[in-house]
């Protein structure tokens, strides 16, 4: 039976407060940054220069943020998809979280909960601030006021309900975190890298919390796809070097077809299977939430990153098409030479045959 370990509220270090502003989104925050000796040896032997990744912002410790009204919101993506129905049932059995409606009692949205998300609230409060979890069908999880220890427990918990799981190092490296607080303003916003939710309206705060979680889930999912594409680019780097140096290509036609399929699969997931290009239906009749959703997506630069990623995919497709044509030409040339050799053999037999007749 699954059991969550004890949790603590996520808080920044008191030694850094209040001399610095709480940081903007912490991209690719890793709980374990040590690389294995095997990985280091592989990179050293390959001779490939490591590609520069997106700049990481400094990680702040978990100590004093709550004393000043700030808590941590974290997002991570562990798989291509969750089996939400099974996950929701298993979540109820843990006796730690209770799946609940997002906006019960709201006039503008009391009809139904979005079908592609499970919202759960902690049954036990470690602090005055409750813990909220959002499980998205696309394989992402957003946790409000959850500690690193609880994040590790959640990753183990959702593993049984995943379709197309990612490697652990990708999950942890692409994790994103921010700090949030409550404000007396009339609308929620993002200021100086921190999220400020409406504090005097519980229903509106829940809606805004979900809206931000939705955008943050898109960001971490896109970050995971970016990491997968970077790994793909690294895998074909040797081929581009061979082309540049005029060396024989060390790849087969079967491998080229596999690489082509990987690219088209990634492009399909990004542009057709996800909501990254379109506004989710949930916001069509909720203009205030649509505004907050779009501003959050702009903060995470989702549109720009999506365009950049599609450009990279197009360049990779050009490379695999070039390789496919080159290998096809080599195959055709090989067949032509085989035909020529067969014709020469046949001509040789005919010459021998006529020579024998002439001798007789």
TrEMBL record:
<dbReference type="InterPro" id="IPR051624">
    <property type="entry name" value="RMD1/Sad1-interacting"/>
</dbReference>
<feature type="domain" description="DUF155">
    <location>
        <begin position="134"/>
        <end position="310"/>
    </location>
</feature>
<dbReference type="Pfam" id="PF02582">
    <property type="entry name" value="DUF155"/>
</dbReference>
<keyword id="KW-0812">Transmembrane</keyword>
<dbReference type="GO" id="GO:0070131">
    <property type="term" value="P:positive regulation of mitochondrial translation"/>
</dbReference>
<keyword id="KW-1133">Transmembrane helix</keyword>
<keyword id="KW-0472">Membrane</keyword>
<feature type="transmembrane region" description="Helical">
    <location>
        <begin position="337"/>
        <end position="359"/>
    </location>
</feature>
<dbReference type="GO" id="GO:0005739">
    <property type="term" value="C:mitochondrion"/>
</dbReference>
<protein>
    <recommendedName>
        <fullName>DUF155 domain-containing protein</fullName>
    </recommendedName>
</protein>
<dbReference type="InterPro" id="IPR003734">
    <property type="entry name" value="DUF155"/>
</dbReference>
<comment type="similarity">
    <text>Belongs to the RMD1/sif2 family.</text>
</comment>
């Amino acid at each position: 039976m699954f059991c969550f370990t004890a949790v603590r509220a996520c808080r920044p270090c008191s030694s850094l407060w209040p001399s610095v502003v709480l940081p903007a989104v912490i991209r690719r925050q890793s709980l374990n940054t040590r690389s294995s000796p095997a990985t280091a040896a592989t990179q050293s032997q390959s001779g490939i220069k490591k590609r520069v990744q997106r700049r990481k912002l400094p990680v702040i410790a978990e100590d004093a943020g709550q004393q000043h009204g700030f808590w941590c919101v974290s997002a991570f993506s562990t798989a291509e998809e969750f089996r939400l129905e099974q996950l929701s049932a298993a979540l109820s059995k843990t006796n730690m979280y209770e799946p609940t409606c997002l906006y019960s009692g709201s006039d503008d949205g009391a009809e139904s909960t979005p079908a592609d998300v499970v919202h759960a609230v902690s049954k036990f409060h470690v602090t005055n601030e409750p813990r909220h979890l959002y499980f998205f069908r696309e394989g992402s999880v957003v946790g409000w006021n959850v500690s690193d220890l609880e994040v590790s427990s959640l990753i183990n918990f959702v593993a049984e309900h995943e379709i197309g799981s990612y490697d652990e190092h990708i999950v942890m490296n692409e994790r994103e975190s921010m700090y949030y607080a409550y404000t007396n303003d009339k609308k929620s916003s993002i200021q100086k890298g921190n999220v400020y939710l409406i504090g005097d309206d519980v229903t509106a705060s829940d809606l805004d919390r979900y809206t931000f979680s939705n955008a943050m889930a898109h960001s971490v999912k896109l970050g995971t796809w970016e990491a997968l594409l970077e790994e793909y680019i690294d895998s074909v780097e040797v081929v581009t070097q061979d082309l540049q140096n005029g060396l024989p290509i060390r790849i087969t036609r079967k491998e080229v077809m596999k690489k082509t399929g990987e690219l088209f699969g990634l492009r399909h997931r990004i542009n057709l299977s996800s909501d990254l290009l379109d506004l989710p239906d949930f916001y069509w009749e909720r203009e205030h939430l649509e505004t907050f959703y779009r501003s959050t997506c702009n903060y995470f630069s989702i549109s720009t990153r999506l365009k950049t990623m599609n450009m990279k995919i197009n360049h990779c497709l050009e490379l695999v098409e070039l390789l496919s044509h080159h290998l096809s030409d080599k195959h055709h040339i090989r067949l032509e030479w085989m035909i020529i050799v067969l014709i020469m053999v046949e001509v040789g037999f005919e010459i021998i045959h006529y020579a024998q007749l002439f001798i007789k």
